[in-house]
Amino acid sequence: MSATPAAADELIVLGKIFSVHGVRGEVKVYSFTDPLDNVLDYPRWTLTRDGEVKQVEVAGGRVQGKFLVVKLKGLDDRDVARTYAGFEIRVPESELPELEEDEFYWHQLEGLSVINQDGQLLGKVDHLLETGANDVMVVKPCTGSLDDRERLLPYTEQCVQAIDLDAGEMRVDWDADF
What we know:
By secondary structure, this protein is mainly β. 5% of the residues lie in helices and 45% in strands. 24% of the residues are buried.
């Protein structure tokens, strides 16, 4: 485990360590990837928590229900592993797989201004939720918004008309009254 991680501002959160597993220093991980075990494709993780940063290497892992059990190299003690709870798992954005045209990672959508078909600013994408049927964008009001309402918009082809990352905008077909 190294103390010299990559710059934290270019790192993308892919999961979070939440507990220990067993007595051999394994940790339990909530993975934000789909499928869950995709986070194991990254052999080195940068862990961050409250300004603390650690660089670790993954020795192995497995899916266990709705979370992962992960073995980190050099971490063999349950009590030490317990101190890793609460760390976010980050990897450099440059290591993420390239997407097809018109495909986006959630972190790319967060912060975009959401403008409806009438040119009204509904707010900015705060975060996204996975609901099973389709992903949902949580759009929160911002300076210049039509009103002060938080909106939940489906991330579907029917709703999302265009995304311009360079302009920081998303155009949607959405009635302002909803």
